[in-house]
Amino acid sequence: MTSFNELMAFQRDTRALGEVAGRQGWDQETVMPDGAGDQRAEEMATLEKILHQRKTDPRIGEWLSAISEGELNDVERANLRHIRRDFTRLSRVPEALAAEIARVTSKAQSHWAEARSNNDFKSFQPVLEEVVRLERERAAALADGGDLYDALLEEYEPGTSGDDIQHLFDAMRPRLVALRDAALGSAYQPEPMSGTYSAKKQMKLARKLAKKFGYDFHHGRLDKAVHPFSSGSGQDVRITTRTAANDPFNCIYSTIHEVGHACYELNIDDAHLFTPLGSGVSMGVHESQSRIYENQLGRSRAFSGYLYEQMEKTFGKAPASTSDEFYRTVNRINKGFIRTEADEAQYNLHVMLRFDLERRLIGGQLEVVDLEDAWNARFLADFGYEVDRASNGVLQDVHWSVGLFGYFPTYSLGNIYAGCLYEAMRTDLPKLDEKLAAGKATHATGWLRDKLQSFGGLREPEETIEHATGMPITVEPLLDYLEDKFSAIYKL
C-alpha cells in the first residue's frame, strides 16, 4: 500500500492547489477590480502550469504501475480509476499549451463581457479565434488520432461521444417541437410577467430560498455575476445569481439552479475531501441536480404555491392574480432568446443549437468569422424568429470564451438524468407534494443527497444515475413529464 498512500498524498496536495485556482476564478467573476485582468491572466497561467506539472508528474505513472488493485477496496479502486484516466489524458497535452490556454481564456472572459455589453461580436472575434485555435490543438493532442470533439466531451461526460448525444437529441427533438408548437398555438395563454421588483428584495428572497433547498451559508455565499455559476467543492462552495427589475424569476431560478450544483458538492461524504471522489462525477450528473432543483421541484405546482406567498410577503405583490395562475406564469412558454431563461419545453432546443455549432467549430467545418451568421440562421430555423442583437445570440453564454467546448450537451444530459431521478423520487416519496407546498424542499433534496450526492465520483456517470433510480437511462421519463405538465397548463 506504500505506493497507493504516496499517490494519494500527492493527489491531495494537487487538489488543494486546484481549489485555490478555482477560487481565483470565482474572484475574477465577482469582485476583482476591472483593471486587474492582465495580471490575473498571468496568475492563472502560472497556477495552471504548476497544476499541469503535478497532474502529469512521471511519478504518478510509476505509482500506478506499482499498485496492485487486488489489494484495494471499492473506494480506493474508484480513486485510482479517476487518477489513471486524468493522467493518461493530461500527459498528452504539452505544459506550454495548458498554460497558454489558461492565459488566453482568462483574458477572453473580460473581452467577452465587454463585447456582450456592447452587442459587438466583431470586437470579440479575434480572441475567440485564438481560443478555438488552442482548443483544437488541445483536442488533437487528447484525441490521439480520434474524433476531436469527442476528446473534449470526454472531459465533462466520460464515456459519452458526440454520436451518442446526437442520437439522444434526434429522439427528443420531434416531441419537444410538437409540444412547444401546440402550447404556443393554444387558445389559452398564461398571464405574462408584469411589474418591477427591487434587486435588494430579490436577493433577500433568493437567500431564503437557497436555505429552503438545503444550501449551507456556513460553507458558502451568494453573490451577483454576469453569468450565474457555482464554484468550489468540499467545505467552501460559492454560488452567484443575477437580478433584473422586470423579471424576478431570473434571480429566483438561477439561484435555485446553482444551489443544486452547490449542494451536490457540499453533500459529498467528507471522507472524499481532496480526493478524486470529492467532486461531482460528471457535468451531466451535476446538471441533473441543478435542473431537478430548479424545475421538477422549484417550478412544481406544489412549490409554486409556497413561492407565491413568499413573493407577496417580500414584494407586496406577485406577478399573477392567483396562486394557480402564478404557477402557469412561472412555467409560461415564451418566445425568447436566452438559454438560461428558457422554459423547460424549449431549453433543450437551445442546447441542441449550441451542440451542433461547437461540434462543427472544433471539427473545422465552421470558422469563428462565420459563427454569428451561422448562429442567427440556425436560431431562425429552430425558433421561427430572428435574433435582434448579439447579447441575445452568439454572445449570451460565457462558455466558449473560457474554452468550455463539449460542456453544452451536458445540460441536456442533466435534464434526461433529472427526468429519471424525478420518476424514482415520486415513487419513493409519496408526501413529496405536501412537503413542497409547505416550503420543505429538503424532503426531496435529502433524497438526492442519500441516493446520489453523498457518493461523489464513486461510480461512473450512467452507473451513478442507475444506482440512484434502479432503472436504465432513457429520454421517456423527461419527455412524458414535460408533456403531462404543459398539456395541463395549456389545456391541450
Question: What does this molecule look like?
Answer:
With 492 residues, the protein is mostly helical. 64% of the residues lie in helices and 3% in strands. The chain has two domains: 2-146, no CATH class; 162-489, Neurolysin, domain 3 (Orthogonal Bundle), CATH 1.10.1370.30. It is built from 20 helices and three strands. Strands 1-3-2 form a three-stranded mixed β-sheet, sandwiched between helices. A hairpin with a 2-residue loop joins β2 (230-233) and β3. The longest helix has 29 residues, at 2-30. The radius of gyration is 22 Å and the shape is globular. The mean pLDDT is 96. Keywords: Carboxypeptidase, Hydrolase, Metal-binding, Metalloprotease, Protease. One of its GO terms (molecular function) is carboxypeptidase activity.
